[in-house]
Amino acid sequence: MTFERMPLEIWFDDHQFEVDYDIGESGTKFLTVKELEIDLNEVELRYGYHLGHPSLRKEIAKQYKGNSLDNVAVTTGASEANFAIIAHLVGPKDNIIVEHPTYPSLYQVARSLRRNLTLLKLDWNDGFRPRMDKLRKLVKPNTKLITLTHPNNPTGSVISKDELKEAIEIAEEAGAHLMVDETYRDLMFDPPPPLAASLSPIAISLTSMSKTWGLPGIRIGWAVADRPIVEAIRAVREQVTICNSSLGEVIAKEVLHKRHEILPVIRKAVLSNYKVVEEWMGSQDWLEWVEPKSGVVCAPRLKRGGSTDELCELLVKKYRTFTVPGSRMELDGHFRLGFGGEHEELIMGLEQLRKALIEIHS
Ligand SMILES: Cc1ncc(COP(=O)(O)O)c(C=O)c1O
After folding, report:
1. Where are the beta strands (DSSP E) in 188-314?
2. What is the average per-residue pLDDT within 327-345?
3. Containing domain of residue 221, as a range?
4. ∠ at Cα 280 (21, 285), nearest 5°?
5. Is residue 31 part of a domain?
6. Which residues neighbour 33 within 8 Å (Cβ) at sequence distance 6 or greater?
7. Which of 7, 74, 221, 240 is the most buried (most CB within 10 A)?
8. Is residue 83 domain-resident?
9. Domain count, the chain
10. Is pLDDT above 80 for 120?
């Protein structure tokens, strides 16, 4: 088969629905239509504009200095935009550089399409920050796309404004594009760097309603890019999903319209959860970590070393607690701990994690 299943998604599909405590999810608490108080009764369940409703695109474009709705393609999650952009920009003989670790589809699409893939590896010793000197050395004459994910999933590391500018410069010099997955940008603990697409026509911003906003079920994401890329996304998506869910678009537009009311509430909850994780990490003896600088995920590892498969499986099966083994994200020895969900569930989940750690160390 050309497309193989992603180990991360298999793990989710197999286990996430059978646990009591989910401390592996990579987003904030899932919201309900009721909580959002959005009246969907009159929404016409029709096909929509293929790039997304203009009013939604306009709402999105407001955030990206120098861009208009013509630069916005709203897609079925960031995943669809990622697929379309790689398929369009990276031909069979071209090279793509993908920061690693990251959400696996960013590199898996390139593998599935049999593109020449180079990984820009993030290192524990660099605090999982991308090294621009390393990136520069990886560029080849046929490099057409470089992708970064910051804030990073699963490590929670962030990129600085200067690093972002340097990455754009490297891509420009190579005649390539730079795509930055900014899905977690609104959840940075410190002020974020500028949105990539607002800095250069060769920079593409990718993001999603799935993580910060707790709305993966509406399947809405988008890319902000130069017009030819937006057109290419439209061409790809017309062959796959045609357009977005009409319900999803209405919800996304309402939420973005009220972002200044909703975001502070979400951020407050995330920061209060993070405090719990920070204290918990300080109170245990078996794990070490690079403290995340953002988002709702981090990637601790066992101090004694070795795989975390046994730990995560024990957690699911005996302690009914969901985390993600690093092996599912090509980050062996670590596991993903998510702290975006319900406060009480996080506390209970960490307690289960403590019990499982005692068990595997005894
Ligand atoms: C960094 C990152 N980008 C993109 C995605 C895919 O998001 P979507 O639900 O919008 O397709 C994920 C999902 O985990 C992610 O973590």
Report:
1. 203-208, 221-224, 287-288, 297-298, 301-302
2. 97
3. 42-257
4. 110
5. no
6. 40, 251
7. 74
8. yes
9. 2
10. yes
Per-residue confidence band for 5, with pLDDT thresholds at 50, 70 and 90: very high
Q: With contact defined as beta carbons under 8 Å apart, do 88 and 135 qualify?
A: no
Q: Classify residue 294 by its DSSP letter.
A: B
Ligand 1 atom with the shortest distance to the CA of 76: 11
* Spatial CB neighbours of 283, under 8 Å, sequence gap ≥ 6: none
Specify the residue with its C-alpha closest to ligand 1, atom 15. 103
| Contact in structure between 237 and 77 (CB atoms under 8 Å) | no
DSSP 136-186: HHH--TTEEEEEEESS-TTT-----HHHHHHHHHHHHHHT-EEEEE-TTGG
CATH number at residue 280: 3.90.1150.10
Say if residue 276 is in the same domain as residue 328.
yes
Ligand 1: does its nearest atom lie under 6 Å from the Cβ of 216? yes
pLDDT over threshold 70, residue 1: no
107 with 82: CB under 8 angstroms?
no
Tokens, residue 148:
């970064």
Residue 208 CB–ligand 1 contact under 6 Å? yes
Does ligand 1 come within 6 angstroms of the Cβ of 117? no
Q: Is the shortest distance between the CB of 229 and ligand 1 below 6 Å?
A: no
